[in-house]
Amino acid sequence: MMSTLLVFTDLDGTLLDHFTYDYAPAEGALNDLKTLGIPCILNTSKTYAELLELRQALGNHDPFIVENGAAVYIPKHSSLGNACSLPCQGDFYIKSFGPHREELIQLISDFKQRYDFTCYSDLSAAQLAQFTGLEIATAELSLQRSFTEPLIWNDSNQALHQLRDELEQYGVKAQKGGRFVHLMGQHCDKAVAMAWLAEQYELSIGGAVTCIALGDGENDVSMIGSANIPVVVRSPTHVPPEIPGRTDVWITDSYGPKGWNEAITKALVNHGYV
Asked: Which residues contact 66 (CB under 8 A, 6 or more apart)?
């Protein structure tokens, strides 16, 4: 019997081009997943507000994971039966794994005099757009966070290690992503959220699933390392991250969405879908 495949994917630098945020080179594989009924679960640092718009553009109707694993959103029309006992927001059930953003902002304010960083919450949409290259409207959506607080980190790596040690006693971690350092609950993690959602699918179908995880950055390492099929999508801006304990990692030949397309096509072929 062919195992049920679940795709978990990072966005920026993976499914979306690092510079242009374009996903056109991945449309072939995206369409294949839709045709085959294989869930494509966005697992990203982006917010709920950002993903509502992006999912519409992608034609994506599957569950999704926001803010680096801080919460899972499950559409109410989903077949995942246990979700209905969760809190809801709009058309989605929510499983969260950490504190709300307001607590994180209050905590990090005490460290501003000793470390050189800028909080996301201190930025206007125009300032964020200038820093990231996002359109102003998209930057406004990115500022609408619920469970994490990104920092523009201007200090040293040594200072970041020191901050991490200090935050640990509060049950908070500082995780380095593509452009930001993300403050979040100690148990918020892309891999944790992936494992929880994969379990919901297994309970729903009454059998095992095979997870393929695709990412390009440090904040994707745990997700990639926990997947059955680990994929590092090559980046034009940094070397592929190491995935500890795995010798079977696929590293794509191409960058970003073109590499993503290659990896998904290979997985579908290897698992007998095409």
From this structure: 44, 46, 47, 48, 51, 73, 146, 147
